[in-house]
Amino acid sequence: MIERATALAQVAALTRNFDAIVEASELVSTDDEHDPEGATIAFERAQVSALLRQAHADSVSIDEALERVRAGRYGWCVECGREVGAARLEAIPFATRCISCAA
């Protein structure tokens, strides 16, 4: 599945990016509170960390969707049991709820 490969590639790239930020910040003596560069480094680290958490979550959601495919439950709303809808699944292939329940 293309989405899964994309999510895993994003996790790998963001992990490398995060590790590089951490490594770079270890090489310099910055005080986030008093050094103007420190706030930038902290912001970048927080931003990449948030993106990494989301990429991990997407990867898990995709794996769960693949499990629903194997179990014959893919495309059915986990709340009401109705079809999720083709347009919604095209937009979000790992959606677990129909539009009504998601709202």
Number of domains: 2
Q: Total number of helical segments?
A: 4
Instruction: Kindly state the number of beta strands.
Output: 0
Helix content: 55-70%
Biggest β-sheet, characterized?
none
Give the SSE order as H and E letters.
HHHH
First-residue to last-residue Cα separation: 27 Å
Fraction of residues in β-strands: under 5%
Taking all residues together, what is the mean pLDDT? 86
Secondary-structure-based class equals mainly alpha
Principal-axes geometry comes out as: elongated
Uncertain residue segments: none
How many whole angstroms does the radius of gyration measure?
A: 19 Å
SSE map:
Blueprint: H1 2-27, H2 36-71, H3 86-91, H4 99-102
Helix pairs in contact: 1-2
List keywords for this structure.
4 helices; single chain; 2 domains; 103 residues; elongated; mainly alpha
